[in-house]
Amino acid sequence: MSVRTAIAASRRRIVLPRPHGPAQRWSLHAPTVPRAVLVVEVRRETEDAVTLVLHPEDGRPIPFRAGQYLTHCFEIDGQAQRRAYSISSAEGQPLACTIKALPDGRVSQHVLRAVRPGTRYSVIGPTGDFVLPDDTRAPLVLLAGGSGITPVISLAETALARDPQRAVRLVYVNRDPARAIFAERLRQLAARHPALQLVQHASAGGRPDAAQLRALLQPSAAAEHYLCGPQGLMDAAEAALRAAGVPAARIHRERFIPAPRPQPRPTTPQPITFTRSGRSVEQQPGESILDAGLRAGIALEYSCTVGGCGHCKVRVLDGTPLLNEPNCLSEAERNAGWTLACSACATGPLTIDA
Amino acid sequence: MSATTTMDRMLDGLPQKAQNRIYGVLDNLRVMSSVGNARVAASMAPSVMRGLVLGKGRTGDAVAMRAHHAAHFDLTYQNEFPQMYELYRRAVAGQWNGERDLDWSIAVDPDNPDTAVMPLDYPPFAGLAEKGIRLNAKEKLRFANDLASWTLSQFMHGEQGALYAAAQVTESVAWLDGKFYGATQVMDEGRHLEVFYRYLDTKLQKVYAVNDNLFVILDDLLTDGRWDVKFLGMQIMVEGLALGAFGTMYNFTREPLLKQLLKYVIQDEARHVHYGVLALRDHITRQLSPAEVREREDWAYEVALLMRNRFLSHEIYYEWFEGRLSLKDWDEIVMNAPSMAAFRHLMFLRLIPNLEYIGLMSERIKAHYAKAGLTSFLGGKNATQLSADDLLRDISAYKPEGLAA
Description:
The structure holds two protein chains of two kinds. By secondary structure, chain A is α/β, with parallel strands linked by helices.
């Protein structure tokens, strides 16, 4: 045995290294039971945006990946309301989510007005696959539009914390960059990390067109591209990237689903048959297909519960459910008979393939 | 004056690190020299070299274990084994889903004594105190949690070995029904690896390296080319060890997620042992020569002792007590702990009757087991006579002596 081999053998590894904490795979199928959280800090980011720093009430960490979101469950005026808001802190930092209030947003206005340090509510998740790539050296091109910066700042900070030399280009499109969320935090991040190219773009004169986006993003076939913002901006950016030769696999989009618009629900019990489980259930008023199935002990898959992730997708074999809009189902999925168990309810007898 | 005493005196004057180094080397030599059968010693030597001397299990990111078996490709599909087919059907029906059937939302709080992963009556605190090491309440809790992580980490490494061994066994077995069954076992072992790793990664958040002695056993059976030795090693010995270890943990833990997880795993393991027993009985009793049977008997005996005597949490020793206690004292404390007695009891309760049933318990080897105090288990129920429910009932019923109720 050589001296080197002998030294290697005598060096005893006791505990295995886990530099990034729990593996990403566990959070792809997100935890599905609400966890109680305490708001320990409320940071006012702009006139209409706040960051909530959250502490799990049970004291155990909520492991998350940069770019993921939580489903926040509030009770407002006696009614349960759920919304998905992105995590805005970097991996390894205290859990924080940033919420921009919409003028007529029932939940976001409640957060802005009523949530204070000491407020208790619950969250489900984290959920989402808008996360950093496995290749820890690939250059990153990040596009954030408005409040789309919330998961993007988490991606940028996490990537640079892991490797300060990593090439990161962050393009931030806002009507008024001076009043943008995280304006100061981003400036400080860029000052600390020369490898970060921070590009602010004012869109007061209108959304950037394909040529402008190409110039702003400076796409590269070797880089991973992340897009988060209004649908139109992401569509235009994706088209510009594809035209510049970026493979589809290197373009990642966060699907922002606007708040659901609930429709009048049935006021009497409705029968649902789950064919594969061989069970029939009476859906009670106010319940979704998911609620009714879970109450009956049927092992249905689900995650965000607000129609944003598609995890609870089930096929309707007979009957027409009422589905809250908007949601993440594509036209092709609707035509093929799929619905979302979390956001749909039976209005008459319904048969589900589950 | 015994040789041990002379050695103890020689070691006495040396610094503790040097004492441990010499004790470790001698201990490794003892493993090899204790093997009476030269063929068994020769077949195990490369794995002992890789595991104990070169420390292959604790350096680098991975280790290549070269397999030497042949895949048995069936050309006529005529080789039937109806009992195995029955087991296969049961295995298919009994598949569970580690994501759906376990409640991962349960928040595991290692500091809550009501739901302790490893309650304080498990670790060998009395033995440590006798050697002058007294831990305060906070240290005891942390130690118990580390011991839980260590134990579950070894379960996880064992499951990784079982995954590859099950795949190899599926390749090499001649019965088509064995191949059907083997495929379900591969799935089972993959799922066990998944749930143990997930528990460690997300709940305890601490994972220990593979223990050297466990590495030797896994390396040995994964690299041995003989299908029946692989079967014997995996289905009877390692699964038998697993049943003892899982059963002990199942009895001790008060944490509901882990309890549920172990219950599912134990039910699968019971089926795995049953399969091994079915496959080996005919082969050993009718097809092997007396010399070949003798070699398998000796091999099983050595592996049984290796597992009984050497699953001693050395990683925990190095993390907690190196410099405060000699490795030799630590081994003595662990070997004499009531929780270790519980583990040995549950392990041999099932192992001995199974070895007897498959024909590896001649009068010659019985004398060796008698010397090791293990013949009280002879005549017990073997895997073909036990359901998973019987097994769980036996495990729950066993209360080790010397432990608080």
